[in-house]
Each structure stands twice: as C-alpha cells, then as structure tokens.
Amino acid sequence: MFDDGSDELIGGAWPFLKRALIVFLPLWVYLIFWTATHQIFVSAIAAGFSVPLIQLFEKLKLKRKMDSEGR
Q1: Closest alpha carbon to 52 in 20, 32, 26
Q2: How far apart are CA 3 and CA 13, in angstroms?
Q3: How far is CA 2 from each of CA 8, 45, 66, rounded to the nearest angstrom?
Q4: Which of 6, 7, 39, 61 is 20 to 30 A from residue 18's alpha carbon, by CA?
Q5: Residues 29, 53: contact at Cβ < 8 Å?
Q6: Would you list the DSSP string of the chain?
Q7: Is the whole model's pTM more than 0.70, yes or no?
Q8: Integer Cα distance of 71 and 69 in angstroms
Q9: What confidence tier does 6 reach under pLDDT thresholds 50, 70, 90?
Q10: Is the pLDDT confidence value at 1 over 50?
Q11: What are the tens digits of pLDDT across the range 32-61?
C-alpha cells in the first residue's frame, strides 16, 4: 500500500479531521456568508472555494515534513 505520510500529520488525527472538514467546512462558510447578508450565489461560490484549502493545507504540511526529514 502506498504511504504518503498524511496519516502522521497533526499527531495522527489528520485523516479524521480531513473527513470532518470536507463535510462541514463548506457548510460553515456558506452559513457565515449567508448570515452576513450576501447573496446565495456568492455564499455558494465561497463555500466551494473552501474545499481546496484543505488539500492545500495537507500539501504544505507534507512538504514541510519531507523537507525537515531530508535535512
């Protein structure tokens, strides 16, 4: 099995946090934008843009981890 090292991020809790964030982060962003009296269309776009932030965070943490282990 291919091991990318992401299961060791944030003390081993990252796989569980990632699943929860992928489900709830867009909902939270949508509700925050919607209650701030933005249009539903703008709220939906902002919620959609919140999902790639999770992947970007994981990629940056893995890169830092690989750089620190390589030195």
Answers
A1: 26
A2: 16
A3: 14, 34, 16
A4: 39
A5: no
A6: ----SGGGGGGGTHHHHHHHHHHHHHHHHHHHHHHTT--HHHHHHHHHHHHHHHHHHHHHHHHHHHHHHH-
A7: no
A8: 6
A9: low
A10: no
A11: 888 887 788 888 888 888 889 888 988 888
| Tokens encoding 4 | 């990318």
- Report how far residue 66's alpha carbon sits from residue 12's, in angstroms, rounded to the nearest whole number: 16
- Per-residue CA distances from 24 to 9, 48, 51, 69 (Å): 20, 12, 10, 32
Task: Report the amino acid identity of residue 49.
Answer: F
- Return all residues near 48 (Cβ < 8 A) that are at least 6 apart: 26
The residue ranges of every structural domain in the chain are 13-66
Q: CA distances (Å), 20 to each of 8, 17, 23, in order? A: 17, 5, 5
pLDDT at position 62, please?
83
